[in-house]
Amino acid sequence: MKNSADDQQLVDAILMLEVAGIIDYNGHGSIRTGERSFLINSGASNRGAMDVGDLVEIDLDGKVLRGDEKPPMEYHIHAEIYRVRPDVGAVIHAHPKWSTVLTIAGHKMKPVYAQGTLLGELPVFANPLSVNTRPVGEQLAATLGEGRGVLMRAHGATVVGSSLSEAFALAMYMEENAHRQYLAMQIGEVYEFTAEEQVACEKNLFKQRLFDKVWEYQRAKLK
């Protein structure tokens, strides 16, 4: 199997997330390549200096189909979501600071930012440990349900999308929402978007062209 355009797109996504401070020396992104396969960055990859050689294609059981490296030990996050969510085309698991701070302190993430409302109600996965077995991956996927994201207590977050640019933009929106919420909590009462306002945001902002706009804005920072 030869490298595809998806390879460079996934490399760019991870590099952009690292520049944005959402992915650190750990974390991973993936793209579905088939009903039972996906492309993901290897566990050993340097998230700040990646290239297509750092990617591996694996099946839902972790068998390497393409590439010379091993997948990350938490590939189960991706595999179990893909297994039960045929609508998902990309998954991002990261350790964003502000989103994680809220879960450490036991605070619910509130819709305080227009783009942040697109994540909807964000459930919290209570287990703070690594998702390094299939049963734990299944539990995480069940907590996510049909949603667009799940917070992971004292650990990080996982976001999904029909496309990589959608998942990428939602990951950016989630962290910006968490940061604004945290800052607002320091000085006063936090304003939450009403149900009607959230519906309006969904109608006006949940669009592929706007996800692509976020992608291109962040991609320019890699040059």
What characteristics describe this protein?
223 residues; alpha+beta; L-fuculose-1-phosphate Aldolase; eight-stranded mixed sheet; 7 helices
What's the topology here?
Blueprint: H1 5-19, E1 28-34, E2 37-41, E3 55-59, E4 64-66, H2 75-84, E5 90-94, H3 97-104, E6 124-125, H4 134-144, E7 149-152, E8 156-161, H5 164-187, H6 195-205, H7 208-219
Parallel strand pairs: 6-7
Antiparallel strand pairs: 1-2, 1-5, 2-3, 3-4, 5-8, 7-8
Helix pairs in contact: 1-5, 2-4, 3-5, 5-7
Helix content: 40-55%
- Tell me the β content: 15-25%
Shape from CA axes? globular
List the domain count as a whole number.
Answer: 1
**Mean pLDDT over the residues:** 95
Question: Could you name the CATH class?
Answer: Alpha Beta
User: Can you summarize the main beta sheet?
Assistant: 8 strands, mixed
What is the name of the CATH architecture?
Answer: 3-Layer(aba) Sandwich
- Which stretches are poorly predicted, pLDDT < 50 over at least 5 residues? none
